[in-house]
Predict the 3D structure of the following.
Amino acid sequence: MQNDMKCSKCGSDNIGEGKFGGYARLMPANKMWSTGSEVRVKVCSECGIVVGMYVKDPEKFKN
Ligand SMILES: [Zn+2]
């Protein structure tokens, strides 16, 4: 993931990365046995807007 994201609200490129605490994983909707993937969140560290989210293991969501 490239680090050229900009905040859509304040225009800052000071974007940090976070993840949900605990076991907040995203599970594929059609694969009950999957362990899912960790979700990473890009956050503007100036105003707190969530700029984007992505899963760490996108290949787990292939049909
Ligand atoms: Zn911002």
